[in-house]
Amino acid sequence: MQPIIKVEHLDVIYFLGKSNEVRALSDINIEIYPEEFIIFFGPSGCGKSTLLYSIAGLETNIHGNIFIEDKNLALFDKKETLQLHRKTIGMIFQAFHLIPTLTVQKNVVLPQILTNANKKERTAKALELLEYFGVKAQAHKLPAELSGGQQQRVAIARSLINDPSILMADEPVGNLDSKSAQDVMDLLKNLNEKQKKTIILVTHNPAFLSYAHRVFYIKDGKIVETRVNSNVHGVSVPQAESVKHTISRDIELLINTFSSLSPNQIGNLLIPFKAKQIVSEALIGMTTEEVEKIEKKVENLLLTGIYDNESTFEFLDQGPDKGGVDMDKRTARKIADKIKDIVGEIKTLEAEENKVKMRISPDSGGEVMQVRHYLLDEFDIEIKNFITLEIINQAIKDRLTNVIDRDVFRKRLSLPVKRGGAGLNKRTAKKMAKRLELLILGKYK
Ligand code: ADP
Ligand code: MG
Q1: What angle do CA 112, 115, 120 make, to 5 degrees?
Q2: Cα(367)–Cα(295) distance, rounded to whole angstroms?
Q3: Phi, psi of 16 (to 5 degrees)
Q4: Domains of the chain
Q5: pLDDT for position 237
Q6: Fewer CB atoms < 10 Å away: N or C end of the chain?
Q7: What's the CA-to-centroid distance between 140 and ligand 2, angstroms?
Q8: In the prediction, which pLDDT does 245 show?
Q9: ABC transporter domain spans which residues (predicted)?
Q10: Which of the ligands is closest to the CA of residue 218?
Q11: What is the mean predicted confidence (pLDDT) over 361-388?
């Protein structure tokens, strides 16, 4: 499967070399595949629009390469650029950009006037689209007579009149109330699923992220993370809100389902799943074979519990003759780092699993109780809930026996009750953790 859009080492710099130089994008590398629904997400000013317009061929301060359907944008002549905007890409904007003095129908037809389609065909096509979007009755009205949601539907109809394969939308629902916003998003989803349009959408609203197959998180002009909700091309990826949440939800589920198993057994059951999750973060553009190879490697890493960043990097970077995957160095480095982060997260989660185990066999030793009384008295906290007291006992016991470190101890105190913590406020938890460290120092020095 060839990407429909490929961005390589893209920098966009405004006022280059001047004192007011703005680096809007730095080293952006992405591949977008046909029929994907992609979201660029990030805070205001992070560079989302700049990236979208760069891909649309509307940005001039570009360094790096952008390929649309395998053709280098930089080499497009005037005619090809026109074709790109007439045929390949449809644009939708936050502000609709309808022409106020033209009727809805004429607005929709507008992009066709420059093509060869005859008038009758154009009109029929426009009406068909307006009907599809539920605004046919408004065809002869002026845009101002329509609601915001209706105007955006008209704008989407207009963007589709030349039947482009790619739809680009910059905050298309940013001006709409939440009901209309959702309607328009559903419409775009439908266009993606039914009419196989590739959609690239910019938003700063996290509520819409689940619409996308993949989300690129942008911060300070860089892509800082890619989230894969599902992969439209072959390799199936579990629906994931984010890797971290999915893993912990699954652990929770497994713990509840297999309460007779030890945390270790549960951990082992989870390993193939975890490996898949980690790899799914990074598999875009790889063959199934490569993906499986990496999954196996990650699975082994998780099994042995020894994580060695360099060896993962080498494995990813080296050629198949050496048992590797032959990735380019930058990608290999990125994935190795990503794997490291996620393995770290898993370690934290495993500590949580242990906590569940502890709860089953609570300690009743006098020392733990003493320390608990001391800490709670010291910070003037009264806890009546038995389970919460047990959780604090366990945390103290684990810290005294050095099963957990200070940070985990603090976390256990501050985590909400429903997530298995003691639900103390963060500052108190921090102070208690510090006090306990002092106690330990005083005792064991
Ligand atoms: P977003 O769409 O994520 O809100 P933009 O892509 O519009 O962000 O802008 C990214 C950065 O580039 C911002 O700091 C913005 O001020 C700057 N920028 C965007 N366009 C221009 C321009 N034409 N000239 C100078 N700076 C610009
Ligand atoms: Mg913007």
Answers
A1: 60
A2: 46
A3: -55, 130
A4: 35-51+76-241 (3.40.50.300), 245-442 (no CATH)
A5: 37
A6: C
A7: 32
A8: 35
A9: 7-245
A10: 1
A11: 77
Q: Which two tokens stand for residue 228?
A: 């894969």
Please state, as a whole number, how many other Cβ atoms lie within 10 Å of the Cβ of residue 288: 10
Cα(222) to centroid(ligand 2), Å: 15
Ligand 1 proximity of 361 Cβ (cutoff 6 Å): no
What is the overall mean pLDDT for the chain? 80
Structure-model confidence comparison of residues 208 and 95, the more confident one? 208
pLDDT over 90 percentage in the chain = 35
* pTM, to two decimals: 0.56
Query: Phi/psi class of residue 437: alpha, beta or left (left: φ > 0; alpha: ψ in -120 to 50)?
Result: alpha
The verdict on the CB of residue 47 being under 6 Å from ligand 1 is: yes
For residues 11 and 22, what is the distance between their CA atoms, to the nearest angstrom?
Answer: 11
Question: Given phi > 0 = left and psi -120 to 50 = alpha, else beta, which region is 34?
Answer: beta
The minimum-distance atom of ligand 1 relative to the CA of 50 is 6
Whether the Cβ atoms of residue 215 and residue 242 lie closer than 8 Å to each other: no
Higher pLDDT, 380 or 234: 380
